[in-house]
UniProtKB/TrEMBL annotation:
Domain Ketoreductase stretches: 6-183
Enzyme Commission identifier(s): 1.1.1.100
Source species, domain of life: Bacteria
Family according to the record: Belongs to the short-chain dehydrogenases/reductases (SDR) family.
GO MF term (any one): 3-oxoacyl-[acyl-carrier-protein] reductase (NADPH) activity
Name under which the protein is recorded: 3-oxoacyl-[acyl-carrier protein] reductase
Keywords for the protein's UniProt record, in alphabetical order: Oxidoreductase
Cited PANTHER family: (3R)-3-HYDROXYACYL-COA DEHYDROGENASE, SHORT-CHAIN DEHYDROGENASES/REDUCTASES FAMILY MEMBER
Length: 244
């Protein structure tokens, strides 16, 4: 198993890509700490995981005190934190002309500030142990923009730049930092979209299909594993060639 004896924190773990990643990592022997604001969904997910010393928390990624306390508990319980996946994220779409400050603040706070808070806390512990992996959930929208998503594009573009900066700063401590940029992924959100919209999304890819949460989970798994020991500062697009 590729993640045996590894302690892994996944934010935004209750649904979608986070859920798929938790299941995949548990299969590979990881010990998981799963965070999300949806406690019921976290409890349900925990019951579905491969056996292990897994735990859940409803700590808010935008609350620095709560996240620092969570990392302290992880350190006390396990004495290590090997992999952190900054997966928590939200959308609040609107065109530039109609977007409110509340929409802007919500998305930037969760997607960018939240990742900063978690990454900063993780780096402190990983420096002490001289090893670690931080993986950030970017998006092709952060690379190429998207209509009606000024806030989301800005948050993911900022996260990509932050990923590269962290890779430069933390490499000397044995810490690798990478980002995954999903394309259009089949989730609960896309399932509610009109069939015409889904067809247009599929047509953007030469493969003529949407990706699955498992596609992203498998990419995270590779980047988290020792097989990717010389990969840092990378942004891996998983989009079915939609952006070519």
């Amino acid at each position: 198993m590729r993640l045996k004896n590894k302690v892994v924190l996944i934010t935004g773990a209750a649904r979608g890509i986070g859920e798929a990643t938790a299941k995949r990592f548990a299969q590979e022997g990881a010990t998981l700490i799963l965070t999300d604001l949806h406690e019921d969904a976290l409890n349900e997910l925990k019951q579905l995981l491969a056996p292990g010393d897994h735990s859940i928390s409803t700590a808010d990624v935008t609350d620095a005190a709560a996240m620092n306390a969570l990392f302290e508990r992880i350190d006390e319980a396990y004495g290590q934190i090997d992999i952190v996946i900054n997966n928590a994220g939200v959308t609040a779409d609107s065109t530039l002309a109609k977007m409110t400050e509340d929409q802007w603040d919500l998305v930037l706070n969760v997607n960018l500030k939240g990742a900063f808070i978690v990454g900063q806390a993780a780096a402190g512990y990983m420096k002490k142990q001289q090893s670690g992996v931080i993986l950030n959930a970017a998006s092709i929208v952060g690379l190429y923009g998207n209509f009606g998503q000024s806030n989301y594009a800005a948050s993911k573009g900022g996260l990509i730049s932050m990923t590269k900066t962290w890779a430069k700063e933390l490499g000397k401590y044995g810490i690798r930092v990478n980002a995954v940029a999903p394309g259009f992924i089949e989730t609960e959100m896309t399932a509610k979209m009109p069939e015409k919209v889904l067809a247009n999304m599929k047509n953007l890819s030469p493969l003529n299909q949407l990706g699955s949460p498992e596609d992203i989970a498998n990419t995270y798994l590779f980047l988290a594993s020792d097989e990717a020991q010389f990969i840092s500062g990378a942004v891996i697009s998983v989009d079915g060639a939609a952006t070519l």
